[in-house]
Predict the structure.
Amino acid sequence: MFAKLKFDLPASVVVFLVALPLCLGVALASGAPMLSGVIAGVIGGVIVGLLSESHTSVSGPAAGLAAVILTAIGTLGSFDLLLMAGVIAGSIQLLSGIFKLGFIADYIPSNVIKGLLAAIGIILILKQIPHSFGYDADVENDFSFIQQDGENTFSELINVVNHFSGGAIIVSLISLVVLIYWDKTPLKKYNFLPASLFVVISGILINLVFQRFIPNLYIEQSHLVNIPKINGVLSLVTTPNFASISNPQVWIVGFTIAIVASLETLLNLEAVENIDPHKRKASPNKELVAQGIGNIFSGLVGGIPITSVIVRSSVNINAGAATKMSAILHGLLLFVSVLFISPYLNLIPIASLAAILLVTGYKLAKVSLFKEMYRKGLNQFIPFVTTILAIVFTDLLIGILIGLAVSIFYLMKSNFKNPFKIEKEVLAFGETIRMELPNQVSFLNKASIKDTLWSIPEGSKLIIDANYCDYIDNDVLEIIEDFKSTVSKEKNIKLNIVGLKTMYQLDDHIQFVNVLDKESQGKLKPEEVLSLLKLGNERFLKGKWSEKNLKHQINATSLGQNPMATIVSCIDSRTNPDLIFNASIGDLVSIRIAGNIINDDILGSIELACKDLGTKLVVVLGHSNCGAIAKAIQGNSAGHISNITNKIEKSIQACNCERHLIEGNEKAIERITQLNVENSIAEILDQSEYLKNKATNGEIKIVSGIYDTQTGAVLFN
């Protein structure tokens, strides 16, 4: 941990400087006894940093909780009752983490998270512009559209025209120039001096110069950080009213704080992981446990409730923080500095801090982010923009809920339109409709699945494939059961339901098996068989294999076979015809011999397949990188291999290539492979009168094909 001190100390200093006016604002907004509740809460934030798994998320008194705390104090009537509610809230968070309720964070869409970050960026820019002009009527922590002073974000910008400080504007402009161009200077390599720290120190020095030499530009104390005097450490400690544990109102406030703080924490955790350059992941459950313990301790010693803080966390990352040491040191620096060096901190112009937050806001809401979300489509862009507008014009929690509602609407719309895949497969035995269910089938899919099933044409063959499905809602199961028991019967639809898990009462249901029967085989023409082989190879290439139900196909073909084609191919282990043509059991007669040559045994097998089994197509299938052809080119005729290579020799001679130049010449080898296939077809026609007559009469067709072992494609000639 301490090995990272040198790197993370500058980042913690930057976050500490930005957090000062924000923490003061929270204290004032909450009605707590000035800094006592905030400083005690800061120590709670340090505890969270120690226990949390998050590397760069910063916790502490948060602006987002200010309104809740303010309302709570008004409801409860005293600060010690609020502390008891804080202890209860922490206990609820602790139990939520122990019982692993942090999974809620995983269900927040990324478009909402990115909208949250962009909204924070836009709010930072809008809210800090008045401070950069020296108009500090609104407290630093007020991020709501309707401000605590009765103004709103836009009216505050208009008011700047009538209230501004020349000195603050100069400090802001110089600070912005430094922050923008810092990385282009040699100073960027000094980690101990981050740009933000330089800006703060420069702001103090510039204002001192104004005071001495240009009084008209001097920034008055009302536009500087203002930390009141602390009367000893013990004055910060306030204990909760333990007797109020039985007060129902205290429990209601405790639950409210727990819900708001937990949601803000989980949202911030997701947001920080989103902008973390290393994309590290922290356990949301451990974060809830850490926040719970931190809030329990904070309430016990007089601290207001704490949560993970988005603005400070993003500043932390932009400052170069790498570990949670930055978050821990940030809290310790706040505590020690407010107690011992507040007079020096009170010299910092708020305009300097405003410049830091302006740059942070721009980094969160870059134009490139809007372009990226727009390219992803309206279903991503509209929830993203809605989240931004809702947060800007309301507050963080309400804006997130509105963004989630819009995102859920588009999710439901998407599920209604395309909850499954449905496609038609043209196979040897006719057309089959296949509906493939997704991994999760919820009640949202009910309407679209019912519409699709009820619109299946009469007399169709339908496969409902649930092999890839882990969950099917009961409402959808009822739809499938109604279709199976009533609709499919009335419309004479043959239905297969496959892949259902054993947990469902609806079992697999098989009414037809996709195998060739005698009637279907008799109707096929040779050209149709060739077309079916081409379609099968396309499915093979795309990975969209037809449903086989092999066990049922075995039973269906056990008493006879009615194949549609005979494939004469090489023994090469990569050229299995049943696979490369995506065929079912009983579709093909596969005759395999090295070099796909023809001899008397092969010829007899082809005649048997065509005459007795009824195949309509004969394919002589060669392939690239054929080992038998390579042996023939090399002149290898040892033993019985000569029976193969001597047959191929004829094709080598026909190539008209010099043998010593063939090896390594891909075009020459491709030419020999093609000639070898054509030679085999010529032998079939020359040596079999039966096959020649059948081919002449158009009863069968004999074609050549080359299988590419690199792509899986078959090219027919």
About this structure: Residues 421-510 form a domain with the Transcription Regulator spoIIAA fold (CATH 3.30.750.24).
